[in-house]
From TrEMBL:
Its main location: membrane. SUPFAM superfamilies: MetI-like. It comes from the Bacteria. It is found in: Cell membrane. Pfam families: BPD_transp_1. This is Sugar ABC transporter permease. Belongs to the binding-protein-dependent transport system permease family.
Amino acid sequence: MKRRRITRSAVDQALAGYLFVLPALASLVIFLLGPIIYSFYISFQHFNYLDPQAATWAGLDNYLHLFVDPVFLQALWNTSLYTLIVVPVQTALSLFLALIVERIRGKSFFRVAYYLPSVTSSVAVSVMFVFIFGQTGLLNNFLSIFGIQGPNWLNNPSTALLAVMMIGVWTTVGQFMIIYLSGLQSIPEDVYEAASIDGAGGVSMLRYITVPLLRRTTFLIVVMGMIGTFQLFDTVDVISNGQGGPIGSTMTVVLDIFNKAFRDMAMGYAAAMSFFLFVIILILTLIQNFVLGRENQ
């Protein structure tokens, strides 16, 4: 077997390539991988970042405490319920809007109009909805036209999380609509033409052609939506002043992590909560990937 001779030019080219990659790689290690590894390490400690020298080894205590922490359990329930409702609704609405926008005039205008909430500051959006959902806000004024007495949405434990769900759907539908539009454009027109010749109607085409061929796009949107909903923080932080109220009805896992880390100074416990949340998201993603893989067999 003839050996391939490595020339000086090939070595220089390889070295130049590694040098170009080195800044990005160093940044990845220093600002991403390094903090992740260190956070995992301190998740096994009683750690206060104001006095790191006083850290003591806790073993699995931080992780075991998660299952008896009432605030965390409430936050996990709220976040799970929020995800369970918001993800299907935003996925269905984004597909519905994509199907409409694809077939009407002025596509560019509607794309921008629907996508705008996704790029608007989440803090600004939250403040806007505080006024909309107020006792004398825009929503209740609208309901009063029909003789309906609306509740104080954000100060009522029964409706606060529902109001947050509305905000979440409104701010994400446009982003996922754009992704669905890209998926729709990748479906060959010949498929629809052949189905039309065979006598298939619009509903049949949607059920047997559009939805199955968009399975990969739907999987991407569901995973992105699930990750986004489990990371809900800024909206509930603004509308509840960081308290997750009223009576813990809007407390989420990430808001609880933030409070534990920067209000209670329990950084080790907050790190354990973060990795527990990571495991939950990873397991749910793997389950969805497994289901999708079986459907594609």
